[in-house]
Amino acid sequence: MEDEVKEITPQELAERIKRGEKLQIVDVREPHEWLEGHIPQARLIPLATLPARMQELDKEIPIVMVCHGGVRSWHATAYVQQFGYQALNMAGGMLAWDGEIEK
Fold this sequence. Notes:
It is built from 5 helices and 5 strands, in the order βαβαβαβαβα. By secondary structure, it is of the alpha/beta class. α2 links the parallel β2 and β3.
């Protein structure tokens, strides 16, 4: 793919949330992983369902993709970028997230 996958650190994401920036945080993990804890503002769209659910995403609002370790979210970011979405991969995934968690 021509476009490079852009990344955001968990710390940068936490700052942007704190500033009240309008972001779409999409967690692409499986439901059982989501239940173990997720970023409060996130919405669950498992990676396998992303192609069928892309219409739920707003092209005008930046998207931050999140998963367990950063690999699935990297693939999700690359995928949606092909369709013109502004997307960032949260580097390190939930393993690196030290912000608030909702269960």
